[in-house]
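User: Okay, second chain of the day. Same drill as before: sequence in, structure tokens out.
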Amino acid sequence: MTSRASVPATNGSAGKGALRSAPRFSEKSFYLEEFYGKSLLFALIPPAGNRISDYNSLIPTLRELKRNQTRCIIIVSPTALPKLSKRMGRMAPSKPVPVFDPSRGMRTRPYPPDSAVTRIWEGLRAASVVIASTNHDDPEDLTVFAQELASRLQTFKLIFLDPQGGLTNRSGQRLSFVETKRIRETLNRVRSRLRRAVVRAADRALKDGVGSVNLVAPRGVYEELFNFIGAGTLFTEMKYGEARPISIDDFEEVEALIQRGQNEGFLLERTPDQIAELLPSCFGYRVGDEHLAGICALLTEPYRRERVGEITALYTLTRFQGEGVAVELVKEVVEEAQARMLRYVFACTSEEHAARFFGRIGFRRVNAADVPVSKWRGYDRGRIARLSIFRYELD
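Assistant: Same drill. Structure tokens below.
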């Protein structure tokens, strides 16, 4: 799966200006803020961790999280333990690493026992990074143990590091997002016994209250945790997914999304000042406790006399492709336009994908003369000719 938006951009009313500078807010800084004071559990599923190169992405990730005061618990096999300790250097715990026997311990409840939870907490309190090991290298046992521990601790995230990386569909493209209601469907496509165990463990963790679960190759963990697009598969319940107006606390995140859309060529380039003018009219679709999955703006101020609204800056992340995020955003914007008693809304795009999208959801293709003339101030005639223009009647 590419790193592009699932619905190409609508072209907004930014005028001509080129970008002077990018917003100071970065994708990584958003995630670090989200992870601050939280606990993340990493599980290296054998043979992950058996090669020194398996830590090239994990160690920088742990450094970032440690500086951010994020608590990290790392579960490894006994074969991987000395390699991880060596690569961690000064981050490695000074006390002996707790060792668990999953096959024996999981016959008792609670598991892990209270004493083990206390030991892990003492380690986190002292250094914010804790390592624990299983007593053998069985990958399924380690997978189930990591899930049980994450569920017992109610961690913010459970991250499975598997050399095979995230799940793929029948075409070999990465499944970047799976919600719990599609777990059974996903299992039907997974043939490997170990991978099926991982998917089931992700499902149990979510049902037990773990915030979200990631499945990614060791080499991609940094990108998976600090990038909107990610590098693996994110599992979430998606029970809180909804489109609504963004709050001022979302403005920086929306700026980062708009910047990403511009960098990918899907959103019309805007200066920082033009982006700031757009933010008050933005709607966002947030998935649970995760980041925004998509954004859309309803621009009405330039068209107040005509009682018209423009749908612009529609952008959804590939990770949530196929989840109906763009449809929900446009539906919410249309409802808001009706509440404002607008006559119609319109959208302009130079992308064929977006043109098909608007046609599919009931928008009618029109000419430039069928939308407010103020829309075209500062536009080049040739550029207008390349646009597909759509209109949706509200009266």
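The first helix runs from residue 27 to 35.

User: Thanks, on to the next one.
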